[in-house]
Amino acid sequence: MTLVKMRDILMKAEQEDYGVGAFSVANMEMVMGAIQAAEELNSPLILQIAEVRLNHSPIHLIGPIMVAAAKKANVPVAVHFDHGLTLEKIKQSLEIGFSSVMFDGSHYSLEENINKTKEVVEIAKSYEATVEAEIGRVGGSEDGTEEIEVLLTSTEEAKRFAKETQIDALAIAIGNAHGMYKGNPNLRLDRLQEINEQVEIPLVLHGGSGISTEDFRSSIQKGIRKINVATATFNRVINQVNKSVEVSPYSDYFTLHQNIIQAAYENVKHHIQIFGSCHKASNEKVHL
To answer: Cβ distance 179 to 231 under 8 Å?
Structure first.
């Protein structure tokens, strides 16, 4: 197995009715931990980084690490540029070798979102890359700096958007939010089911950190195929480091290094088991 197209991972999940975790990473250690978990569970994996995170993890540094790790993995791994906001960075990620990109035009009008997304689809064609886009507004912001109110995805608009843009995967808003939820999330599973009945491409759930196991599995049963997890992994790393320091200060860097890998591994493993993708790492086509 190696670096693959995200559309192939998601289409297999669609055929066999399970979800695939898309895990945001910020450094080499988190990449290593995620790959370790996926290989242990024989699960397909999506590694991703969002454009708003590039101030901390520049794309020219983190990108090649993600792609190299995918190529060496023993399971199919897609490398995805999440919440792309600018054509410059989307193109750069494709040049580095990312097998998938997302254009987030959810803050535009429907017409403008469609037009800009179609432009990204045309760019991605020459790389044979998967394209994800979003309609409606997922709550919060990817980096946690904004309070953005959820704008529920319209079933009719989702149907039109998917048809006109010819994207490969569609992120929808059904009460989900980025970051950790302040209360219990209230997912509109009825709206999800309506959209799934009208839209033929795989559906994506952003804001996975903090959603219950029951809601994850209900969402997957009703058509979600890609589930984004970021904050839960970052928090697992922080908690692991803080816990270790409370017991004893680090005396060498490499203990810290291993603790970060372990924390990322544990969180990715936990979510893979919930999503049902264990032992599904087979038959995805290689992205050349």
So the answer is: yes
Helix boundaries (H) for 84-203:
87-96, 110-125, 155-165, 189-198
As to burial, measured by CB atoms within 10 angstroms (0-12 exposed, 13-18 middle, 19+ buried), residue 47 is buried
Neighbours of 181 (CB within 10 A): 19
CA-closest candidate to residue 206, choices 234, 185, 232, 177: 177
Give the number of residues written for the chain.
Answer: 288
Catalytic status, residue 82: yes
pLDDT, one tens digit per residue, over 109-157 is: 999 999 999 999 999 999 999 999 999 876 444 444 454 455 789 999 9
Residue with tokens 């399970």, as numbered in its chain? 18
CA R_g for the chain: 18
- 8, 17, 82, 215: the active-site residue: 82
The pair of structure tokens assigned to 99 is 């097998």
